[in-house]
Amino acid sequence: MPAWATNRIGTVTQHRCLWGLVAWCVAGIILLGGVEGRPAERYIISPDKSQLQFRAYSLLLKPLGTFHRFSGDILADAAHLPASRVRFVIDASSIDTGNAKRDAHLRKEDFLFVSQYPTISFTSTAITKDDRGYRVQGNLAIRGVTKRLDIPITVEQRPQEIMVRGEVRLDRKDFGITYNAFFNPVRNQVDVSFTIVGVEP
Fold first, then answer.
1. Most buried among 15, 74, 130, 153, by the most CB within 10 A?
2. How far apart are CA 147 and CA 124, in angstroms?
3. Around 125, how many Cα atoms within 13 Å sit in the side-chain half-sphere?
4. Do 147 and 174 touch, CB atoms closer than 8 A?
């Protein structure tokens, strides 16, 4: 092969390598820029896809209850996690334990006092991540009493929606719910579990 042909092939090869390197660098810059500059995503909580349950305990029973009506939103900021937040409001009258008489009692002053405190709310103050997963800190308000919670959660982000799962144990007396029955004493602990699904508006 003539020397000029060898030189030309070498020059073309060098140019291709150079352009390949430039293209790789540009792609890297675009990719990194997309992560750092990715806007926060807002999701509306869907009651139809979500579930909020609790289990209470007494000497004779341990009913499983749920709330059917709630609303709220989730702001997920992957680039700046501390900017993420959750806001959740429950219609306290939607409580359902599968027993109409018991549910009517739970709505009264002995328990949720729905006529005076119609909603239960949770507002996050911080969302953090460590080796064990995510945690959400926030304020839970029941019956006019607000308590700070720290809840371990799992987060799954899917196309056009986000799913948040978690469990927490509450002490009902922390919220001024002190009612008890002589023949069927009620324990103070209430276990709450939730699967909250937010969808893009």
1. 74
2. 12
3. 10
4. yes
**Beta carbons within 8 Å of 75's beta carbon, 6+ residues apart:** 40, 41, 42, 43, 83, 84, 85, 86
Contact 151, 134 (CB under 8 A): no
The answer on pLDDT for 36 being more than 60 is no
Q: Report which residue type is found at 105.
A: H
Token representation of residue 105: 């009692």
Residue 193 predicted with pLDDT over 80: yes
Evaluate whether 145 touches 174 at the Cβ level (below 8 Å).
yes
Q: What's the whole-number average pLDDT of the chain?
A: 85
**Strand residues in 16-144 grouped as ranges (E):** 41-45, 51-58, 64-67, 70-76, 85-91, 95-96, 119-130, 133-142
Amino acid code (one letter) for 193: S
Q: Can you state the percent helix, strand and coil of the chain, rounding each to 5?
A: 25, 45, 30
Which residues are within 8 A (CB) of 2 and not within 5 positions of it... i.e. 6 or more apart?
A: none
Q: What is the mean pLDDT of residues 124-132?
A: 91
* pTM to 2 decimal places: 0.78
- 104-133 as b/e, with b when 16 or more CB fall inside 10 Å? eebbeeebbbbeebeebbbebeebeeeeee
Segments making up each domain of the chain, as ranges = 1-37, 41-199
Q: Which residue is associated with the tokens 């304020």?
A: 139
